[in-house]
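Appendix C reproduces, verbatim, an entry submitted by the partner laboratory led by Prof. M.T., so that reviewers can inspect both the input and the predicted structure.
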Amino acid sequence: MQGRKFGFWQIWNMNFGFFGIQFSFGLQQSNMSAIYSYLGADPENLAVLWLAGPITGLVVQPVIGSLSDNTWSRRFGRRKPYFLAGAIIASFALLLMPYSSAVWMAAGLLWILDAANNIAMEPYRAFITDILPKKQHSLGFLMQSFFTGLGTTLANFAPVILVGLGFLSLSDKSANGIPVFTYWAFGIGAVASIVSVLISVFTTKESPPSPEQLKEMELRKKEGSIISRTWQEIVLAFKEMPTAMKQLAPVQLFTWFAMFCYWQYITLALSESLYGTQDASSDFFAKAQVLTGSVNGAYNIVCFSVAFLLVPIANKLGVRTAHFISLSIGGAGLLLMPYLSDSKAILTLPVPFMDSELVISQLYILSFGLGLAWASMMALPYKMLSSCLPDNKTGIYMGIFNMFIVIPMMIQIFSMQTFLYSLLGENPINVIRLAGLFLIIGGLFSYAIKLPKPQLGHND
């Protein structure tokens, strides 16, 4: 099937399931630190409570990548069984999360949720390279970047919309201290997770492996148990890892370390910066939680708005320069965060069909910069990676590449837990400053990657 060119809406449909997966991730990013705080977690312990994501990604994604490379069923396909199973499990975890009665329960559900999301997401990267011709890989990955922005935007804005339109009150809380709007947001996420994946499953036909690949799959099945085969394939893939993939490691190290800092501490940083408190029982903290959703939603609006613009920019400037510029603008936005006000407007827009105005405050300068960086992170590293991978091992290498994301997260968690938070004065604002600096450093490392000439632009 790779010989023919696909239309825009065909690529849209095959990627639509990514929307639900990212809706789920968006709910985690904006709400987990707040949920932990409502249940009594201390700020210095927030980092270790986020351990589920990197650990499950480290274990699950390479294994699922290897398994999906060696799966083929005429009825169920190659990658689709995995992201469908992941979406079903994720939906149940999302429904249960707001009902957590203690920190340990929320942390346990996060482990399940992250494992499910990783099962669903990893095959999606290989799904695109399986089906689309190489010339359309950029569009396929940028479509995923678009749905990353859209899904996370709606996840982040769900509490804002529910409260802002008067459906729910900011102060309404359940017995466990978690606001009622959180229950509704996670319920909406559960529906989005499964429905969007089902749309992709029923509208997209997977490409069958080539006769050579099918023969290779059969030979592998005779080499031992599924556990031993998977382990051997992962070890061999590490030994034969393409050079450009290795050179992407420091880029991913700094950028994903930065993003984990941001997701963990932005609510606390906004509460401290704008309201002078980190007290989770105060209405100011609830305002900061809702504001986190607005800021995150805004940066994801920017993400899906600029996603397709990155194609001509990367073609003109070169993928490395485009990634450096995007990350540097995002880093600058985070460095500016403590100096931005939520009460000073930079832009006022009329709302169509309503006698009101939309006021955009200084704070959303952060959203613009981070949205551009996020769009680039969701697409350009995968564009660089796809140019150097063998066709019959895209699943396992996409899974291993995820280790370049989760290992930085683990480093961030353990360093923040043991010494870094104290070194930063136990001030969440300083954590956000560090994140900004690391985004810029990650961008600089882009220039160390050696790419094929077609991916290099005039400035590369």
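Residues 8-455 form a domain with the Growth Hormone; Chain: A; fold (CATH 1.20.1250.20). Additional entries are available on request from the coordinating office.
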